[in-house]
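Q: Predict the bound structure with iron/sulfur cluster.
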Amino acid sequence: MTNEKRPLVRISIGGDTTFVEQVQIKEKRSPQKKSKNRRLPKDPKPKEWLAKELSQLRIADYKPFNFVDGEGVRCSLYVSGCKFACPGCYNKAAQSFSYGFEYTKELEDQIIADLGKDYVQGLTLLGGEPFLNTQVCLQLVDRIRAEYGTTKDIWSWTGYTWDELQLESADKLELLSKIDILVDGRFLEAKKDLTLQFRGSSNQRIIDVQKSLRQNKVVIWEKLSK
Ligand code: SF4
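A: Predicted complex:
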């Protein structure tokens, strides 16, 4: 027991005023803070979220010639809108479907021209959620295949897991069928690991899409190093 005086704080409960030690307030608040940190991303039912209802065909950002969104030099298109609401999301502003700017023919022409450079390996789709913006992504992917065939590879990030995508709408399955590499799954703060190659949490996988579709099981990218 000590005689040390602790600061008192005036509070009001049901109209009555009383004084309590500051430490009592902190103790009462801390469980709330913990429960907020434990919030998990949303889990949609199959076909619950549809691009045709959600997408506003908007883009959060376009970054040509970067080295961080997959293998080699890449052009990255960040679409607007994602409903997974992962705590700790790396691009929270892009969760809004109205964020950013309209996808235009001029932007598409620019992406196609940038991809034409010899040193560019391919396109990366991320966001936001590419699979909730399939109209934009499919239009661009189809044009890349028409102009470059398979000489440019296409990577996409998604909050959906591979298994969830198998139960999804036709547009999502079509986009999946046309890409090369998928980084799947929500970002989970409890599994955060910044040393991982191209992903933020250890539940996420780098999947070779074409091999996985052929073998009807998830096949991990053969160049995975960690
Ligand atoms: S899935 Fe990706 S973009 Fe969507 S909330 Fe989670 S981290 Fe953010």
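A: Residues 25-35 have pLDDT under 50 and may be disordered.
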